Amino acid sequence: MAIGNKSRAEIVKVYDEIIANGLQETEDQFRASLNDVVRLVELEKSYSTNRKLDIYELLTQISNCTPKEREKYGRKIRRLLK
User: Fold this and answer.
1) pLDDT 10s digits, 14-70
2) Helices 49-63 and 27-43: crossing angle, nearest 10°?
3) Other C-beta atoms within 10 Å of 57: how many?
4) How many alpha carbons lie under 13 Å from residue 69 in its C-beta half-sphere?
């Protein structure tokens, strides 16, 4: 995937695909996929620093939880990405 300046809608689309595929991935594969979102958020200039920090915190939490708990964090992250 090319990492560049993406709009928020495109970031949400990428995130949704990662979450959907995360059900079939191992924990390591899921974390590696989430790194793509981290890079996209980092490059997106429309997010404030505080919002980026909130997104990073939740991405850390979702990468360290069980697959059953991912839905809870997933909704929160998606809301912040919009």
Assistant:
1) 999 998 888 788 888 888 999 999 999 999 999 999 999 999 999 999 988 887 788
2) 180
3) 14
4) 9
DSSP assignment string, 5-21: ---HHHHHHHHHHHHHH
Tokens of 55: 């997104």
CA distance 20 to 76: 15
Rounded distance between C-alpha atoms, residue 43 and residue 63, angstroms: 21
Q: 27 to each of 51, 71, 77, how far by Cα in Å?
A: 25, 15, 18
pTM: 0.84
d(CA 58, CA 15): 13
